[in-house]
Amino acid sequence: MKFLIVSLLQLWVLIGINAQGIVWENANWANILKNADQSNKLIFVDVYTDWCRPCLQMDRNVFADSALADFFHTNFISVKINGEDENFGEDFAKRYKINAYPGLLFIDGKGQVISSFMGYHSKYELKKIAEQTITLYGHQNFLADIKSNLHKHYSSEELRDILTISQIHPFDGKEKLAMKYLDGIEQITEDDMRLVMNEIQRMGLSYLSRLAPLTTSLSYKEIYLRPNAQEWLVWKSSTEQAIHERLSRYKLEDNLSSFEATLEILKGINGTNNRQVDNLYLSYYKHNNLDQYKTFAAYIIEAYIIPVHPKEVKKADEEKYILLRNEIEKDMKASLVEIYTSDTSKETSSTPMLDSLVQIYTYSKSLADQLYEISGDFYALYEDESSRRKATFWASLSHLYYPYDMKYFDNHLFILESTGRLEEAREIVAKIKLLPWYGEMSKRNSF
Fold this sequence. Notes:
With 447 residues, this protein is mainly α. The chain has 3 domains: 10-130, Glutaredoxin (3-Layer(aba) Sandwich), CATH 3.40.30; 156-266, no CATH class; 306-444, no CATH class. It contains 22 helices and 4 strands. Strands 2-1-3-4 form a 4-stranded mixed sheet, sandwiched between helices. The chain is elongated, with a radius of gyration of 36 Å. The termini are far apart. The model is unreliable at 1-18 and 310-358 (pLDDT under 50).
């Protein structure tokens, strides 16, 4: 009989709670925080004012709902605070930056805001927000423990759970757990990539070398045929960015072994060619080893530029300089298109197949730009006579490849004038003015 009476009383209490809606705690704030901390519950705070119409509407339409009241009684300690109350409410509103009413906050036992919202919300919206906040709070507690134990041994299943949650709530050190996860996997699946790819830029080089081929070896056509093409595009872009960031870092650190190891990964990127790889070596040497740069720059021009010269000049040695200069002057009036399309039947394995004018202009300008840069470097960095002659020769080649920009001519003329070859400079100026497009070019460039 006694048990029946107690049960009836408990039922009456629950009915009473539901009948009056959400029950608001009346204790002082310090005790409420202490209670929340001990019970591991969040505090739900409704910050209102007497004149706030949406606040009254939430009291009538939302907080009075019995189902919502039951949910909040189970999961939260609920508190109502007048944001204009001089005893406590004004300070509370300032502390928690309440700038609109009603202000709805979910706060933990340490006084930290887990989530906050302003304005009227229906009972359905408020319940959804409350459920999401409970999940968020659980994740935060979980991740707080993980962050303080990054070196702990976790099973593959535990690591998968941690990495899954960290997709929503990232944290510092996540890449260490991602690398641990990969250590326990022989064959990386698409699901595994989904867990770890966000950390690829912070992973060790060995992990980058494992992940990179899975995305970079694919062409864009292959990616677009996949159901989740957008995701794969992001992975490919992130991987390539990680590779190039490492190349830049290792160049600045003068770490040749790591630079070369990263280049090996780069070679697996679909479409990467030897010229791109060698140009990265050239950039490394320019920053760290000027003697090696001097040798390698000459190799780059011999290997990649001279073989595709419009007149098929095969070697840029000093003996042929006079002959080549005469050819340059003779061909100055010819357009680049005529030079490249004069006899396409004689293309060799060393000559790129340029199948449109756009490709011709783009490729020619890239060669001219490299000649422009290297010739300028040789003139500025090296004072020996051989380097100065090479600088002049390569500068003259640059405007043969792309005679539509005055900067290539200016560079050549500057080197000629600086080395006292004024007569040659005057001859070049006279020939420039005979170019069919000189008038238009001179409008865009000072000359």
